[in-house]
Write a structure and sequence with these properties.
The complex is a heterodimer. By secondary structure, chain A is mostly helical. Chain A contains eight helices and no strands. Helix content of chain A is about 80%, strand content about 0%. The radius of gyration of chain A is 21 Å and the shape is globular. In chain B, helix 1 packs across helix 4. Classes of the chains: A mainly alpha, B mainly alpha.
């Protein structure tokens, strides 16, 4: 019964959390209040930290973790399937509609405006990552201490290497993780 | 059958190496789907992102479902989606079961100093690639710049911006059709 409820609660979250990632947070907070024996609000902070420092979509990771805290592996499975099901169903519908209108000049007009907007959105997401990755905030009035120089160095080296060698991103990620670990010992 | 396996493993690889959610997945998608498998184009990828932003659910999942669905129908959509969440499912269950202090471990923290810096470079590289395909003239340059600034400085909801940009595109192109 609890598994069904887990599926249902995360299905709702998946249906109403539009925009991905941390958009699921308010729903999880509500769930913690409604079902205190599943997980508590205090646990949410750990969940965010773990979801952000493991691979995979953050929203789904949060669901898996919350599901596991509530009902072990099967709970994790129910919560994960719950959160992705509404997305799968909506996307099926959207793809079908889109295919029906493929090549339509009005739809093309819409995408003409959408594409640069997406480029802008992703650029802005990059700035958000850069703030936590490359800067030491809050700003203490000294430009030299504002930047986390080892990170800036990794950033520049990876960016240049990306232009020179067309290697798979996972190599750069693995190498950067290693450099980060090594720098920790210095 | 072989195609479905390929879909699953390609998306599992993407999901297993995406750090930081939907937008950070873009460099992996470009490499795997546009450059390696040639399943889609940069333009289509942007369309998927725009739609994923405005439909319910996690962006990374939405994009996986859309590409899987295009490639191999409904079953393909389901397989691609299961693929993209599979590695993190396993990892999270292990962490939740035995490594609750995982995020506090200094080795993990240090690794993430490197990973985050790398993700910045990957995203910048992706945005430049996308920008070349999306910014075609002065109006599209303005749309990209205005969206970027509004999200950075005013934290306006991306959904509203995507809808507004779509309408603007329709208006601008529509005017061209009427001429």
């Amino acid at each position: 019964m609890m598994y069904l409820r887990l599926f249902y609660e995360f299905f709702k979250t998946g249906l109403f959390a539009i925009g991905g990632g941390l958009a699921t947070l308010p729903f999880l907070r509500e769930m913690a209040a409604k079902y205190p024996n599943w997980f508590t609000e205090a646990q949410l902070a750990d969940m965010i930290a773990i979801s952000e420092s493991t691979p995979g979509p953050i929203g789904v990771n949060m669901a898996t973790y919350a599901g596991f805290s509530s009902g072990n592996v099967f709970g994790a499975l129910c919560a994960t399937l719950g959160i992705i099901t509404p997305a799968i169903l909506t996307i099926f519908l959207v793809t079908k509609i889109l295919d029906a209108f493929r090549g339509n000049k009005y739809v093309n007009g819409v995408f003409y405006g959408l594409r640069p907007a997406v480029a802008g959105l992703i650029g802005a997401a990059g700035i958000t990552v850069a703030k936590t990755a490359l800067l030491c905030l809050p700003y203490a009035g000294n430009v030299l201490t504002l930047f986390h120089w080892p990170s800036v160095a990794i950033f520049v080296v990876v960016f240049v290497l990306l232009k020179v060698f067309k290697k798979h991103p996972l190599w750069y990620l693995a190498a950067s993780a290693l450099v980060g670990i090594l720098l920790g010992y210095i | 059958m072989k195609d479905l396996f390929k879909l699953f493993f390609t998306f599992a690889r993407i999901g297993g190496f995406t750090f930081g959610g939907g937008y950070a997945m873009l460099p992996m998608l470009q490499k795997e789907l546009v450059e390696k498998q040639k399943w889609t184009t940069e333009e289509d990828l942007m369309d998927y992102y725009a739609l994923a932003q405005c439909t319910p659910g996690v962006i990374a999942v939405n994009v996986a479902t859309m590409i899987g669905c295009r490639k191999k129908g409904y079953l393909g959509g389901i397989i691609a989606t299961l693929g993209v969440v599979f590695p993190s499912f396993v990892i999270i269950v292990i962490i939740a079961a035995v490594l609750k202090n995982y995020a506090e471990l200094s080795i993990v923290k240090n690794a993430f100093v490197g990973i985050r810096a790398c993700v910045c470079a990957l995203i910048l590289d992706s945005v430049i690639k996308l920008g070349k395909k999306a910014v075609l003239d002065v109006p599209t340059l303005l749309i990209a710049a205005v969206v970027f600034l509004l999200v950075c400085f005013y934290s306006i909801s991306p959904i509203i911006l995507v809808i507004a940009a779509g309408l603007l595109g329709l208006l601008l192109q529509g005017r061209r059709f009427l001429k």
